[in-house]
């Protein structure tokens, strides 16, 4: 059974920073794609940023220059460094991964940015 466990959410003032982590556990060999999505109240879930196992990335325009994704392949962990946070970044952030041809989601971590 594959599990994604997120950590690092919280409350921060506008302009502040947070770092999210997501560790994958279970029986598998390598993870092709890992990433972060977010869902604000009343809105659809949207891609924030994702990274392949060879570290190519793509991201939402709204986070360009502010958020940086990285991964530690031996630890099966993906990180999201979020800087210059804005109130509109407030959402539940979900870790996502494609493992052994299947898609997995974390339980979500709340990020709240106060103005």
Search tags:
single chain; mainly beta; four-stranded antiparallel beta sheet; globular
Description of the molecule:
By secondary structure, this protein is mostly beta strands. It contains no helices and 11 strands. It has strands spanning 3-7, 10-13, 18-25, 33-39, 46-52, 57-59, 67-72, 77-82, 91-99, 102-105, 109-114. Strands 2, 4, 5, 6, 9, 10 and 11 form a 7-stranded mixed sheet that branches. A 4-stranded antiparallel sheet has the order 1-3-8-7, with no helix packed on it. The chain is globular, with a radius of gyration of 13 Å. The termini are far apart. The mean pLDDT is 95.
Quick synopsis:
The protein has about 120 residues and is mostly beta strands.
Set out the fold topology.
Blueprint: E1 3-7, E2 10-13, E3 18-25, E4 33-39, E5 46-52, E6 57-59, E7 67-72, E8 77-82, E9 91-99, E10 102-105, E11 109-114
Parallel strand pairs: 2-11
Antiparallel strand pairs: 1-3, 3-8, 4-5, 4-9, 5-6, 7-8, 9-10, 9-11
Q: What is the CA-atom radius of gyration, in angstroms?
A: 13 Å
Number of strands: 11
Sheet of most strands: 7 strands, mixed
Percentage of residues assigned to helices:
under 10%
What order do the SSEs take from the amino end to the carboxyl end, as H and E?
Answer: EEEEEEEEEEE
Oligomeric status: single chain
End-to-end separation in angstroms reads 40 Å
**Beta fraction:** over 45%
> Which segments are poorly predicted (pLDDT under 50) over 5 or more consecutive residues?
none
Overall mean pLDDT: 95
Number of helices: 0
The geometry reads as globular
Category by helix and strand content: mainly beta
